[in-house]
C-alpha cells in the first residue's frame, strides 16, 4: 500500500475498521472475520453483482445492497446480519434453487459444490416451489468440455474467466430474462466454437454446469478387457494436486501413491509423463539451438499446452512457424509405448490401450487430433481422464489414496530427472529447456541450474540468459490472456525474445481445468493453492540427483536403441507435429 | 445462402466511420441496426463479419443481438402481420387481439414462425382509426378485428 492511499473508516456490525479507499464492503468485513455469504463473486475476476446473495444493510440506504459491488465510504455503518437480512438471503438462494435440478446425490460435483454448500449454510431445508424450470439440451459435442445449461445459475464466472483471464471470450449471456443462457456465439455446439478446452470455466463454475467430457466408461471397459495391455501415464501436476481430492492440503507430492493406485485399478504398466517431459526437452532444446544458430524462425514458442495449441491456431494463425514442432510429453510417451516399447516387448500396438491421467481437460482434445494419430488413423493416446475423473474412479473402488504405499514407475519410460517434474508449473518448461540448451551450446556444465527469474505466479516473466557470450532473451506467460500480449508482439515483428514459454492455464498445468475442485474454504484459482502445488514440484526437483533432461539415462538409451539422435528422421516421425489454422476465427 | 447477405459498401463505410470514433465498440448496436434495416434481420455470417471488423468477440455480438427485442435473427416470414398499437386501436382492444395473434402463431412480437410463414410486428397508428382495431397482413387491412377473428385471418394465409 502506498503512503498516499486514502484510508476510509467505517463501522461494520458495531466495530470500527479502517481500509483503503475503494475496498468493497465485502472485503472490509473479511478483515473482521465476517465472510458475507456470496456466490457470483470471485476475487480474480471483475465484479458482476449478479446474484445478490451478498446483501448487507447500510444505514440510510433504502434497500439492502450487494456488498461485493459497493465500495466503502467514510463513516458508513454496515450491518451484515439481522433476521431480515438472513431471511432475504435465504429467499434469494431459494429462488435460485427453484430453477435448479434436485440432483445433488447424482451430480458430478461429487458433494463439493458451492451452490449446495451455500444452500446448506443459508439454512434452506425445504423446497416449496414446483414451477417451470429451465429445460435445455446438454451440449456434449466438445472433445474436452461439456455444458449443462440446466445447472447454470447465471453467475457469469465462466463468462468472466474465459474473457478476462483466458482472452478467448467463447462465452456470453444470450437472450434475456427467464430465457437467459450462457452459450458460445450463435448457440453453436461447443465443438464448433472458439473454445480451447482449457477447462477454466469448469474450475470457476460454482455448480456442475460445466464439466469435462466423461471418459471413465472407456477406461473401465479397457481395464476389463483381457486382450488389452493397459499402459498408464500421469502428468507432473497430477501428483501435486490429487491429494486435495481426498481432503489433503494442496502441495503434497503423491507420485508413489498414484502409481500404486493405477496398478490397483488394473493398469498393467505404469509409466510417467515426466519421462516424456525429459524427452520433449531434449528435442525442443535441440530445436531451439538449431533455430538460434542456423537462423531459424525466432522467437521459438513452446507447444506442450493443449489449450494453447488450439488457441494459437485460431487466434494467431500467422505465426504458427514460431511454434516448436515438438509434441507434448503425453503424446511423446504414447507414441513411444506404441512403437519402441511395443517392439521391445513384442506386443501388437493395436492391443495397447494408452491411458493418460492429466491435470488438463484440453488433453482430451489433443489426444483426438488427427495429427496425434498413427499411420492407421488410430490415436496414440487412447483415453485421457482428468485428475478429477481419476479421483471419482478411485472413490468408487474405495481406494483411499493417502493411505496407499508408494511405488516406483515401471522402468524404460518411467524414470525422469528433476527438470521434468517442474514442467507442471509456469516457467518450468523454460527452465528445463535452458538447463539443456545451455549445455548443448557451450559444451560446458551448467553450475547454477535454478532460473529463479522464470519462476513464480507473475503473469508475464522475462529473463536474459548469458549463453557463452550471447544474450538469450526469454519470456514466460501463463493464462491465455497473458499469452495474447506476447503474441501481438510476435505478429508485429517487435518481439524482443528468442524463446517464449506459454502455458494455457493460470499457474501452468498445476492450475489445469481437470484438477480437483477447490476445497470447502478455498476459492478456485486461489494463489496460495497454486503456489503450494508449484512448490511440491520444485521440491521434487531439488531432491533429485539428476536435474537435467539430457542426463536421463533412459532417454539416452531410447536414442541409442531407437531414435538415433535428437531431431532425427525417426524423432520427426513420432515426436514432432505440425499446425494449421483452425476456425472459427478467434477475436 | 450466406452469399446473399453481404456487408454493403454503405454498411462498410459506416463501420469504418464508427471505428474512427472514441469508444468505437459502443457503436455495435448502431451497426447491427444498419444491417437489420438492410436485410430485415441479422444473418449469422454478417454478425461474424461485424465481430471481426470491429474486433468484438463473436459471442458478445450474439449476446447483444439476442438481448434486444428490436433485433431479429431469422429472416422475415413470407407474410408480415402488422398490428396497430396506436391509441385508438389500443383503446378498442388491440392488446387482446395481439395476445390472440401471439397464441395462434406461437411467437412473440418481432419473431417469425418456425415454418417461416409469418412475422409478427407492431406499428404505430396507420391513420385508419375509424376501423380500429386494425391488423394488416402484407398489404391487406383487416378492420374491427376481434380476438376470435384472428385464427380465421391467419388460416387464409396458411396455404398461400
Ligand atoms: S450443481 Fe450443486 S446444487 Fe446443483 S445438483 Fe449438482 S451438487 Fe446439487
Ligand atoms: S474451456 Fe476455456 S476457452 Fe472453453 S469456454 Fe471454458 S474457459 Fe473458455
Ligand atoms: S455455467 Fe457456471 S460459472 Fe457459468 S454462469 Fe452458469 S453457474 Fe456461473
Ligand atoms: S456475490 Fe455479490 S452479488 Fe453475487
TrEMBL record, chain A:
Q: Where is the 2Fe-2S ferredoxin-type domain?
A: 6-84
GO biological processes = ATP synthesis coupled electron transport
Q: Which GO molecular function terms does the record list?
A: 2 iron, 2 sulfur cluster binding; 4 iron, 4 sulfur cluster binding; ferredoxin hydrogenase activity; iron ion binding; NADH dehydrogenase (ubiquinone) activity
Cofactor list: [4Fe-4S] cluster
A single GO cellular-component term from the record reads:
membrane
Query: For the 4Fe-4S His(Cys)3-ligated-type domain, which residue ranges apply?
Result: 84-123
Record-linked Gene3D superfamilies: 3.10.20.740, 3.30.70.20, 3.40.50.1780, Fe-only Hydrogenase (Larger Subunit), Chain L, domain 3 (3.40.950.10), Iron hydrogenase, small subunit (4.10.260.20)
Looking at the record's lineage, which domain of life comes first? Bacteria
A Pfam short name? Fer4_7
UniProt domain 4Fe-4S ferredoxin-type: residue ranges = 142-173, 186-215
What SUPFAM superfamilies does the entry give? 2Fe-2S ferredoxin-like, 4Fe-4S ferredoxins, Fe-only hydrogenase
Listed A to Z, the keywords are:
2Fe-2S, 4Fe-4S, Iron, Iron-sulfur, Metal-binding, Oxidoreductase, Repeat
Which NCBIfam families does this chain map to?
Answer: FeFe_hydrog_A (TIGR02512), FeFe_hydrog_A6 (NF040763)
Cited PANTHER family: NITRATE, FORMATE, IRON DEHYDROGENASE
In Swiss-Prot or TrEMBL terms, this protein is called Ferredoxin
From TrEMBL, chain B:
Please indicate which superkingdom the organism of origin belongs to. Bacteria
Required co-factors: [2Fe-2S] cluster
GO molecular function terms listed in the Swiss-Prot or TrEMBL record = 2 iron, 2 sulfur cluster binding; metal ion binding; oxidoreductase activity
The EC designation for this entry is: 1.6.5.11
Q: Does the keyword Iron-sulfur apply?
A: yes
- Top EC category: oxidoreductase
Which amino acid positions bind [2Fe-2S] cluster, per UniProt?
A: 84, 89, 125, 129
Q: How is the cofactor bound?
A: Binds 1 [2Fe-2S] cluster.
The answer to whether the entry has keyword Manganese is no
| Matching Pfam families | 2Fe-2S_thioredx (PF01257)
Q: Which UniProt keywords are present, listed alphabetically?
A: 2Fe-2S, Iron, Iron-sulfur, Metal-binding, Oxidoreductase
> What NCBIfam families does the record point to?
PRK07539.1-2 (NF005722)
Q: Which PANTHER family match?
A: NADH-QUINONE OXIDOREDUCTASE, E SUBUNIT, POTENTIAL NAD-REDUCING HYDROGENASE SUBUNIT
* UniProt record similarity statement: Belongs to the complex I 24 kDa subunit family.
Q: What is this protein called?
A: NADH-quinone oxidoreductase subunit NuoE
The lineage, from the top, is: Bacteria, Pseudomonadati, Candidatus Auribacterota, Candidatus Auribacteria, Candidatus Auribacterales
